[in-house]
Amino acid sequence: MKNEPKNQLFDRRNFLKVAGISAGAGMLGVHRLYGNTQKPAIQGFDDTGSETTAQKIWTPISDRKIRVGLIGYGVCQFAAAFGFQDHPNVEVVAVSDLIPERCAELAKVTNCKKTYPSLEELIKDDKIEAVFIATDAPSHTQHCIDALNHGKHVACAVPAVFGSLDNAERLFETVKRTGLKYMMFETSMFRENLYAMRQLYQAGCLGKLTYAEGEYWHYSENGIDSFKNWRHGMPPQWYPTHSDAYYIAVTNGSFLEVSCMGMPSDMERYQPANNVYNNPFSTQIALHRTSEGGMARMGRSSDTIGHGYGSETGRVRGTKGSYYDKYDGVVKDLPDLTRPALPPSMEGGGHGGSHGHLTEEFVKAILEDRTPLVDIAMALNMTVGGIVAHQSAMKDGELLKIPQFKL
Predict the structure, then answer these.
(1) Is the peptide bond before 159 cis (omega within 30 degrees of 0)?
(2) Three-class SS of residue 78?
(3) CA distances from 12 to 9, 221, 301 (A)
């Protein structure tokens, strides 16, 4: 494929030989990420919020159990963090991680008896109907394509693709061809404020959005441990979905064009010679033209003084009202702004209580045979704007067109 970034050449099967990372490196334990006694290692993981869930009563729509495989138990331990093992309509029948100790721990925390040494082996299991892919971001596209081609519905951690517009086209065509469910687990979709914005927008309470902004400030002094160090010096806008959702997930719209400015960093990993991306920027601020004709400012930064604060949030302004912590507008008869109910066995979890809601939405989409909320078009529209934004930043803010995806 043309213009592929160097990181697309990562060889997963050579990782254990090349990386020299011990099997236990980076293992944090679910209780450390989400418990009350220790501070999480990654910004956002301690941001829970299940209060609104209790206001509604969950009603089952089926007694069927979907047979699910969980893949990927690295530093984020996402395969277990989204609660598939706790959903009454799910049976976790197999798990996988490349590192045997991590795979065994994933099986233990999800109470699963069957393990596979790799995704490539797990997706051959005909008993599995759906998979949740929480592997390294550079591998997301190929892993999802492989799983879809083996007849599995796919849920995937963000981003849908990593730095490659060609891969976006490949994934889009595969989802359309197979007719299977695909959902990107964008956590901002079920944050309390974004969910309220979406309900207000869909009900016409905001009008057309004249302006939106999202921010994803994610500081880490030494970088976050990752497979083959893929996070090391990555272009910030290649991981844009937590911020870009504050327009695209609210409206189901897209970004048409972008001008992006970047700020170089003094941090070692953001020196172009020290990362595989030849990337100098730790902060990138993108100004997008939206599909409604408005504007959206989306910021991504991994640099600050000291330890800084983490932020995954946004705000919107429309022709009928705005939302910044609360609704302020002309419409008085507002829709229900509280998030859907969860099964009693599930918690909202991290990232603002979004984890459980994403799993519930994916499971219901399969049971109801419908398109998931964060479908392939929305997932790619949330992702490719950042890829083009980085191209713009490398060209000193040149205004560039963004590919469009629509089902």
Answers:
(1) yes
(2) helix
(3) 9, 26, 28
